[in-house]
Amino acid sequence: MKTTRNPWAWIPTLYFAEGLPYVTVMIVSVVMYKRFALSNTEIALYTGWLYLPWVIKPFWSPFVDILKTKRWWIVSMQLLIGAGFAGIAFTLPTPFYFQASLAFFWLMAFSSATHDIAADGFYMLALDDSQQSFFVGIRSSFYRLASIAGQGLLVILAGFLETSTGNIPYAWSIIFFILAGLFLSFFVYFRFILPHPVSDTGKAAHTPKEVMREFENTFSSFFIKKGIKPAIAFMLLYRLAEALLVKLAAPFLLDAREVGGVGLSTQELGFAYGTVGVIALTAGGIIGGIVASRRGLKYWLWPMALAITLPNLAYLLLAVYQPENLVWVNVAVAVEQLGYGFGFTAYMLFLIYFSQGEHKTAHYSICTGFMALGMMLPGMAAGWIQEQLGYVNFFVFIMIATIPTLLLIPFTKVDKDFGKTKKNSHPKN
Question: At 8, phi and psi to the nearest 5?
Answer without folding.
Answer: -65, -20
